[in-house]
Every structure is written in structure tokens, then in C-alpha cells.
Amino acid sequence: MRQSPLFPGPALLRAGSHRPGSGPRVLAGLLALLVTAGPLTGQAAAARLEGWSFGVTYDRYLLGVPGRDGVSFRGTALRPGHWSSEFAIGALLRHDPEDPLVFGLDLGTAYDATPPGSAVLIKAGGTGLFPVSHGVTGLVGVYGGVGFLARVAPGFGFRLDLTRRWFIGATRVPVWQFDVGL
């Protein structure tokens, strides 16, 4: 099996792969996706957020070294006081031509501890990072974290997530992920 710049043995993600100036392009792409995403049904003008909430997030993988950026489409079923479904489908951004394209997938559940007009989520589930490159294997594992959704206007909201990931067979380097989205 060949070594990948993204998965170089025990170091899950390559250090120093962030290119200055890529943040504004990511945010511009995020805004373009939001314009085409349509209304967020879970973030309607009710006193409590209920139903499905869909949105796009800018993801930052924090590894104690310069991390990697990504973009994800997320969906969470909001049911105040209940456990419900959540998912995310995303991709890590390529900062170097040698980086393989990497897709991410999360499938899990989230408990909705809802204050009026927002949602505080306690979430857990299965996760995976899957590179699209010959001879490079992906990583699967579990995640746990917290999230916060707040209604900004009818049909429009803001989301923050902090997630800890544990990958099976991977190094014990903590893999934290911070997400900001609309």
C-alpha cells in the first residue's frame, strides 16, 4: 500500500497543508451553496425549532498542528426533548495537488435539549473519511460532540458544532472538528 500525503501512517492528516487565503474562497462557496439550498424547514418561525434542519458548514479539523479544512452538508431532525437522526456528507478541501480527494460521512443521533428559538444538541454516531485514491485506505470510527443551532430570521439559522472523533486502528492523536454554518 502506498503512503498518502493525507494519511501518512499514524499522523492522520498532514501538517502544514493549509494555504493562506483559502478561507475567503471557502466562505464564498458556502454562501453560494446556501443561496441554492432553499428554506430550512426546521428553522421556521415557531417558538421551538422542530422538523428537519438542513445547511452547509465550513469544517476545520483541529489536530494540534495546522489542520485541514472541509465543507459539509448537514441534516438534523429537531425534536425537542428527544433523540433523533442526523447526518453529514462532506469533503476535505485539497490544498496541495498531491492530496487525495477525501470524502467524509457521519451517520448518528442527536439529543435536542431545546431552549426557545434555538437547539442545543448532544450528538454521537459513526464516522468515516474515505480518500479517492488508488491504494489508500479510509478511516472509520465513532464521534461524539455538541452542537448549537439558532434561528436568525424565519427560514434562516446559524450552526456551531464541536466534535471529537476516534478512528479505529488510528493513532491516538486527538481529532477535533469545529464547524460553522448557516
Average pLDDT confidence is 75
Q: What's the arrangement of strands in the largest beta sheet?
A: 1-2-3-4-5-6-7-8
Spans where pLDDT lies below 50 across 5 or more residues = 1-18, 42-46
Biggest sheet architecture: 8 strands, antiparallel, barrel
Total helices: the number is 1
Task: Give a written overview of the molecule.
- It is a single chain.
- This protein is mostly beta strands and 182 residues long.
- 30% of the residues are buried.
- It has an 8-stranded antiparallel barrel with strand order 1-2-3-4-5-6-7-8.
- 9% of the residues lie in helices and 52% in strands.
Provide the descriptors you would attach to this structure in a database record.
9% helix; globular; disordered N terminus; 182 residues; single chain; mainly beta
